[in-house]
Amino acid sequence: MATLQNDTLLRALRREPTPYTPIWLMRQAGRYLPEYNAVRGRAGSFMALATTPSLATEVTLQPLERFALDAAILFSDILTVPDAMGLGLSFTEGEGPRFAVPVRDEAAVAALAVPDMAKLRYVFDAVGEIKRALDGRVPLIGFAGSPFTLACYMIEGGASDDFATVRRMAHARPDLLDRLIDVVARAVRAYVREQAAAGADVIMLFDTWGGLLTAPAFERWSLASMRHVLDTVPRGIPTILFSRGAGDRLGRLVASGAYCVAVDWAVDLDAARRTHGAQAAFQGNLDPQVLLTDAATVERAARAVLASAGPAPGHIFNLGHGIVPATPPELVRVLVDTVHRESQRREP
Ligand code: CP3
């Protein structure tokens, strides 16, 4: 494998100095890009796109052709793992993900098993093909959902505003949730190990819904299972934990041993870096809605995030959550160029 021409992301994750602040964006390959919509249209569906390695490779590279991003992220989805467990994933326009078989009772939990990783071969093949196509330009981020966030979708059977069924199960049937999280965590462990073996340079865990839990429940189901997954990532592969809405739990996330904690826009990055910056890198945290304003606002907001992160190493610029489909690509260019230019100016 070629050595990396741009390793600013890996250096920042290790809290080493970089010539500028690296930037990549959650959902950087997606519906805000007309060329993505064209490939998705040809593929017929999101799952057809994600399960065809050559197409997943093509869309992974699309944002890198347009913008000077410092990382690629595997084009896939966190829900591929429950799909491989036999839940029957589909995506419907405007509605988001759906599982044909939600997991709600004893029998459904008892029927779950760690899937044969051969069912997810298309993901590992995509990792290999993307690495070859990148040819060392930038590192490739592999990822998985946190076991708790996957359990949320499995129990609810799809997207939800409040995941009420999951929260009720956490209170009334903690034993059932324990068993569900245990099997999902073992599946996610195998999944991230295979991505690393296929060539992923970084592993990121998305805990989109951990912030819904009470503090003790967060520790029991979200954090403990993420630590279990992190334990299996080969030493030397940097890890990023994104836990949305966990701003008051940063100390515990940092103590997980992840190289980096990714934070949403509600987090005070200045305070986070002052308190925990010696133990972990931080990634974030521009409000994605900024990218639906205008160039001057984007520049001003980007400078404000850089200022709150401070000049020391260990900051990776990103959004606080995924890019919104209505984002004009031109403002993404303004953001990437502003972060590179302004952070260069700030380094000693
Ligand atoms: O560019 C990238 O960031 C890599 C690809 C990626 C996707 N999903 C592609 C995708 C990544 C890292 C994800 C993670 C993911 N998926 C998360 C965690 C991060 C987060 O957003 O909180 C979650 C919760 C999911 C589950 C999921 N996938 C939902 C709720 C939806 C529907 C909502 C939506 O945005 O449409 C998806 C679909 C999805 N995953 C799309 C993309 C590009 C859009 C599907 C399409 O093209 O129709």
**CATH level 1 name:** Alpha Beta
In the sheet with the most strands, the strands line up as 1-4-5-6-7-8-9
Q: Tell me roughly what share of residues is in helical segments.
A: 40-55%
CATH hierarchy: architecture: Alpha-Beta Barrel
Average pLDDT metric: 96
The biggest sheet amounts to:
7 strands, parallel
Strand-pairing-aware structural class: alpha/beta
Number of domains: 1
CATH topology: TIM Barrel
Bound molecules: coproporphyrinogen III
- Overall strand count: 9
| Multimeric organization | single chain
Provide the gyration radius in Å: 19 Å
Measured between the Cα atoms of the first and last residue, the distance is: 33 Å
Question: What does the overall shape look like?
Answer: globular
Strand content: 5-15%
Number of DSSP helical runs: 15
Can you offer a commentary on this structure?
- The chain is of the alpha/beta class.
- The protein has a single domain, classed as TIM Barrel (Alpha-Beta Barrel).
- It has 15 helices and 9 strands.
- Helix 14 links the parallel strand 8 and strand 9.
- The radius of gyration is 19 Å and the shape is globular.
- It starts with 7 loop residues before the first helix and ends with a helix.
- The structure holds coproporphyrinogen III.
- The site of coproporphyrinogen III has 22 residues, from strand 3.
Descriptive tags:
single chain, 348 residues, alpha/beta, TIM Barrel, 7-stranded parallel sheet, two-stranded antiparallel sheet, 48% helix, 12% strand, globular, binds coproporphyrinogen III
